[in-house]
Design goal:
By secondary structure, the protein is mostly helical. It has 20 helices and no strands. The chain has helices spanning 2-27, 30-51, 57-75, 80-89, 95-99, 105-117, 124-135, 140-147, 151-167, 177-199, 210-226, 231-244, 270-284, 292-305, 314-327, 331-345, 347-357, 368-379, 383-396, 400-423. 41% of the residues are buried. Residues 183-283 form the DUF6596 domain.
Length: 424
């Protein structure tokens, strides 16, 4: 039973964005669409342990949810006309529909849903929180960690955002070109966060969620076709293409995380790297100041072009992080800059920068701060202190794979400390 429950949970994470997008097209109410999708999930949790998981679980969930949507509309006398229209112009999704979804209407619905939830009638924070909830299937706790905010704050934003979209009757569509630009920056940010959640999962049993990365990259490529003149669109696509080239090497045979410096670079996908470098060149050739996605793509390009970890041009990467920190100041960027500086000029310099971040309240519960500190302390031979930092990072981490890695590093630090003590 537990195994079936885990399988259903994995299916839900994959299928829920398509469900919610398709249902939103029918009922034109994103909050109601999410409720209907959740209803289908509840029915699956009740039936599948007894009947077995269908061969095409996405089609089963879509059919079940759509039937409930039509039943709901029929029960609402005010919407009788709409029921007739829905019954006349739509059919239940078949298995073939879902198979072809990413290339057809279902896949396009996801892009429409992003533009709907990124409507300027909502605040930037509300747009991003709602879209991460619907498109990535993240819990309010996971979104709160991404925002470095309180869970109750995120929950309120999401509820208010759904109500506002319904009250304002925001259309379910990709806007005309004249309205596209004002929503584009938020859409890019959402796709970027969606990709990051796939690249390093906030919680759960898997460190990466490749399908989420693939979907974010697909949406980015679609945006590049819609807005070919926007350099940051190409910058984001470049970033995702190059990062995606490493996905197969980010986990070991047992699903354990493999860090960048330990990855087998010969297994990086060269086609994706070439596509990413071409997209980066397009962005850089447009004659505009580099934006945050183009800068990050340039950083990943230096990694992609280094045949070995020792070949990496860390001083250039540190300079790019400096530019990124000036453009979009944030403690996360500063943390990454500290890592780059430690690699370029030595761990003592990086540790000095990290010590300045210790007082930042937004990083108080952010597990990567003690994780990076632990790594630098270990390199400096301060292994007892490193063990303490790795243990603290493990206590804060929500992802099981990442927690296991951090605990292993804590144990390695303890062993190394004992060896150093024997030598002295």
């Amino acid at each position: 039973m537990t195994s079936v429950k885990r399988t259903i949970d994995a299916i839900w994470r994959i299928e829920s964005p398509k469900l919610i997008a398709g249902l939103t097209r029918i009922v034109r109410d994103v909050g109601l669409a999410e409720d209907l999708a959740q209803d289908a999930l509840v029915i699956a949790l009740e039936r599948w342990p007894e009947t077995g998981i269908p061969d095409k679980p996405g089609a089963w969930l879509m059919t079940t949810a759509k039937r409930r949507a039509i039943d709901l509309l029929r029960r609402n006398k005010v919407l009788d006309r709409k029921v007739e229209e829905v019954a006349r112009t739509t059919v239940l999704y078949t298995e073939d529909d879902v198979d072809q979804g990413l290339d057809g209407e279902i896949g396009d619905d996801i892009l429409r849903l992003i533009f709907m939830t990124c409507h300027p009638v909502l605040s930037r924070e509300a747009r991003i929180a709602l879209t991460l909830r619907l498109l990535c299937g993240l819990t309010t706790d996971e979104i709160a960690r991404a925002f470095l905010a309180a869970e109750s704050t995120i929950a309120q934003r999401i509820v208010r955002a759904k109500r506002t979209l319904n009250a304002e009757k925001v259309p379910f569509e990709v806007p005309e070109r004249s309205e596209l630009k004002e929503r584009l920056s938020t859409v890019l940010e959402v796709i970027y966060l969606m990709f990051n959640e796939g690249y390093t999962a906030t919680s759960g049993d898997n460190w990466v969620r490749p399908l989420l990365c693939h979907e974010a990259l697909r949406l980015g490529r679609m945006l590049a076709e819609i807005s070919p003149e926007e350099p940051e669109v190409h910058g984001l696509v470049a970033l995702m293409e190059i990062q995606s080239s490493r996905l197969k090497t980010r986990v070991g045979q047992d699903g354990e995380p493999v860090l960048l410096m330990d990855q087998n670079r010969s297994r990086w996908d060269q086609l994706l790297i070439r596509r990413g470098l071409a997209a980066l060149k397009r962005s850089q050739s447009m004659g505009q100041p580099y934006g945050p996605y183009t800068l990050q793509a340039a950083i990943t390009a230096y990694h992609a072009q280094a045949l070995t970890p020792a070949d990496t041009d860390w001083p250039r990467i540190a300079a790019l992080y400096e530019a990124l920190a000036r453009l979009t100041p944030s403690p996360i960027v500063e943390l990454n800059r500290a890592v780059a500086i430690s690699m370029a000029f030595g761990p003592a310099y990086g540790l000095q920068l990290l010590d300045e971040l210790n007082s930042d309240p937004t990083l108080k519960d952010y597990h990567l701060l003690p994780s990076v500190r632990g790594d630098l302390l270990y390199k400096l031979g301060r292994c007892d202190e490193a063990r303490t930092e790795f243990e603290r990072a493990a206590a804060l981490a929500k992802n099981e794979r990442e927690r296991s890695l951090l605990l292993k590093r804590a144990a390695d630090s303890q062993s190394k400390a004992a060896e150093l003590e024997e030598e002295t």
